[in-house]
Amino acid sequence: MSDRIDWKAAVWAGLIAGIVFMTLEMLLVATIGGGSPWGPPRMIGAMLLGPEVLPPPATFDLGVFLVAMVIHFILAIILAIPLAWAISRWRLSLAASIGAGAVFGLIIYLVNFYGFTALFPWFANARTPITLFAHLAFGVVLGWTYHALAVRHFAHEASEARQHPRE
Q1: Residue 142: in which H helix or E strand, if any?
Q2: Contact 102, 140 (CB under 8 A)
Q3: What is the Cα–Cα distance from 76 to 15, expressed in whole angstroms?
Q4: Residue 77, SS3?
Q5: Residue 46, by phi and psi: left (phi above 0), alpha (psi -120 to 50) or beta?
Q6: Please, where are the H alpha helices in 32-93?
Q7: Under a CB-based contact definition with an 8 Å cutoff, are residues 130 and 26 in contact?
């Protein structure tokens, strides 16, 4: 592991963790939460489109869904950067990266659902165990994925340097 951020690994880790988060959130809301799977994307889309896109009804709307996914994945990539920095800076082990990711996911949950409710009051409705779990999963997947990708990248870089030393 290097103390430099692997930017490509950070972007991929953000995208992968973002997919896991959104899939979990939508599936759990629909299966054990008793709600519509389209509720979470509508809440995200409303950040840009306004509260008029919020349920009811929480039905599928392609335009709202696409706006929500753009917002969600941009935020997932942006959020990957500080965790990638910490993992790289402190050269965390895989276990420590996963633990740091879990703490990071908890912090994101608290900031989003207790801080940003001033801007987006509908977020208060999503203060549920499902949303907390999805954020913890986001952080764990983010930490694990970034660590795995960055270690692989820097190991490959070191191998290349040994095979082709500078003169």
Answers
A1: helix 129-163
A2: yes
A3: 6
A4: helix
A5: alpha
A6: 39-49, 62-89
A7: no
Residue 69 CB contacts under 8 Å (≥ 6 apart), including other chains: 22, 41
Q: How many other β-carbons are positioned within 10 Å of the β-carbon of residue 25?
A: 27
* Dist CA 100 CA 49 (whole Å): 33
Chain centroid to CA 157:
27
Sign, CA dihedral 31-36-41-47, equals negative
pLDDT tens digits for range 5-44: 999 999 999 999 999 999 999 999 999 999 999 999 999 9
Which amino acid does the sequence have at 152?
R
- Per-chain mean pLDDT for the chain: 92
Decide: 154 and 1 in contact? Cβ < 8 Å. Answer: yes
Tell me how far apart the alpha carbons of residues 102 and 108 are, in angstroms, rounded to a whole number.
Answer: 10
Token pair 């949303």 in the structure block, residue:
131
End-to-end alpha carbon distance in the chain: 24
Please tell me what DSSP assigns to residue 2: -
Exposed, middle or buried: residue 40 (CB in 10 Å: 0-12, 13-18, 19+)? Answer: buried
36, 84, 89, 153 from 148: Cα distances, Å: 34, 11, 15, 9
